[in-house]
Amino acid sequence: MKTVFTIYITLVGFLVVPSLGVFFPGHKQEKTIEAPLSKEERDSAKISKFLVEMTNTRLMAMEIGKLAIERGTTEEIRSYGRLMMDEQAKMLERLKVIAAERGLTLPVTIDKQKAKSLDTLKQKTGKNFDRKFMRILKADYKKDVIRCKRIKKVNNEDINKFVNEYQPVMQLHLQRLKSLKSNYR
């Protein structure tokens, strides 16, 4: 029992007391106190995050659009892939303009999570490809619609203009995917 108590006291001494500066009188611990961000700084961070996430999704959608053109089992899927390539490119260009005006550099490749999802899609063929293609898009468009609803609270003119223009497009894509999906159950 005495050994356990001694070990406990020793651990407390090494873990707690040094953090108080007792064993290291010459050692000054620096305490960083960060001032809370202003509303403008928080909004700017939210806009930057939104632009990066939306860009990442556009890049992914363009990649899987290419795959749909190459691997889609029906003309309907291949046609949808072409439509996506066109619409995603337009959205991406608009995002780049907004980011440039803010001095923000956007990613030029998809992130690791989306790359993993893309690799999984590349392994699919036939109807399995079609179903996975639609599942990925559906999940991404749902996230996009949620992002758009959240970012509107920031009340930035450029962002609101983008959202007002493209959120309905995203919702139409969700509806179109729903009708496409009914053909692939």
* Uncertain residue segments: 4-24
Tally of structural domains:
1
> Going by CATH, what is the homologous superfamily?
Ferritin, core subunit, four-helix bundle
Structural class from helices and strands?
mainly alpha
**Computed Rg:** 25 Å
Fraction of residues in β-strands: under 5%
Using the 3D structure, state the CATH architecture. Up-down Bundle
Say what the CATH topology is: Ferritin
Order of helices and strands: HHHHHHH
How would you sum up this structure, described in words?
The chain has 185 residues and is mainly α. It has one domain (39-182): Ferritin, core subunit, four-helix bundle (Ferritin), CATH 1.20.1260.10. It is 77% helix and 0% strand. The chain is built from 7 helices and no strands. Helix 3 (39-71) runs antiparallel to helix 4 (75-102), helix 3 runs antiparallel to helix 6 (126-151) and helix 6 (126-151) packs antiparallel against helix 7 (157-182).
